[in-house]
Amino acid sequence: MSNEGKKVKVHYTGTLDDGTKFDSSFDRNEPLEFTCMAGQMIKGFDAAVRDMEVGQTVNVHLEPAEAYGERDEDNVRTFALEQLPGAENATVGQRVFLSGPDGRPFPVTVTALDDRTITLDANHEMAGKALNFEITLLEVED
Description:
The chain is mostly beta strands. Helices cover 8% and strands 42% of the residues. The strands form 2 sheets. Strands 1, 2, 3, 4 and 9 form a 5-stranded antiparallel beta sheet that branches. A 4-stranded antiparallel beta sheet has the order 5-8-7-6, with no helix packed on it.
């Protein structure tokens, strides 16, 4: 039976291939709720939950295409500091928000900063990485 289009509740732990944990609903002591296959989750996570049964635990390995995609170097841009007022106060590694053409904010990471320029990376921080998830389906609402 498919869970597609149904509201589901899962607990999960996400790790990188080297075993580093990057996220876990257990750490927040709160299951994750979403509508399965509605585009709210990365493709591979959604697909893993689609055919699960309540109480089942699965381990999935997702290549970047099934997760946050490959890194795109076109998403790394360098700007003159005067183009971004306040940018001179940023620090390398800091996550900041810029506004898109539609006015909606989107996160970028400061990857370089000197007295004239700032380099910003708009790739998702997990782009280009294979991800592993242990997922337990707790509940399905029809």
